[in-house]
Amino acid sequence: MEDIEIYNLATDVISSIAADLNENLYSKINGVLSVLWRTDEKFNASAQSNSKVDEPPVHTVNMYYELARQLYRDIEEYCAYIESECDKPIFDTLFGSHHKYKELIPSSFSKAEYKKNMFISTLTWVFFHEIAHLNQEHGHIRSQILQSDNHSIDECNIYKSENLEGRAAAIYHTTEMAADFEAVYICIKELVRHFKGMDLEDSIGSFACALSCALYKFHGIKPLNIDSAPKGTHPSVIVRLEHLLPQIWEFFDIAEVQSLGKIKLSRSELVYICELHSVTVGLFWFRKQLLSEEKFHEFLHIRTIDRIGGREYMKTIISTWDEIEPEINKNKRFDDPLALLRFTGQYRELVFETINS
């Protein structure tokens, strides 16, 4: 597609979603959602609440044309990389023994449709990430706890980052992970609404791929430093991915979801589908950046708690979430309990018992 076609598609998709949200959600609480498209040459998105938490919401999401353009161009490059089969021997070694191993770009969609679907998934996830910040009033949470008047949410801008530490960084990191969680939940609900059967199975892989493309873009070539304490405004992109991929396969492992989507995939198959597509994106991004081989491990996801400092980091995130969740529940604009960030009892035990022992 030409740049203008990317811009037109992006504005059409986001305008349609915003109109639906205004009609079905915001209008019911006398609120309004606006979307502004920015021409600044930034890979960024942002959100702002122009109302108090006890007033009808007046919310604004700023989307950037440059974000849309770069997302689509990365998807084009990724598809060309897969079609080149330059790393097929690596994929064969990693995944070839699995009985679901097959074409990485499914033939159920044309190449143009696949790129378009990936692009819409990626753009939609970014947009709903901003909506989640607004829905959960993260600007209010941050300003209240950190005693600041700034209610703006400046998204993962790869060109700058505030040097936050301590409690401030913990609040920022935790609310970013909460926005990630809600955005993924909304996106995968939409997949089930639009696709069934084999198309849905292929779309699960496509969404894992699209999500990975967006996050690796935000990652850029920054080193993967997992400190035991949060620093800066955002968690490591790889850490975010390590928590979002399980959310996808756990959602589709629910019996009611499988029945509604007319699919029958085991948990191991769901894990495989998500891991396969995400790993291919990680290797693509590594190749794209032309980095040295010793840095390859920085582009692969594992379990955050298996990293040095990872358990201590997640202890802070979980404790911070437990602190702010009641306030978020009190102020959130739209009530869907499944959209809220959650940590299972089993995961909490893995984090806290090991630390305590």
UniProtKB/TrEMBL annotation:
The protein's name: Peptidase U49
Species whose genome carries this gene: Psychrobacter namhaensis
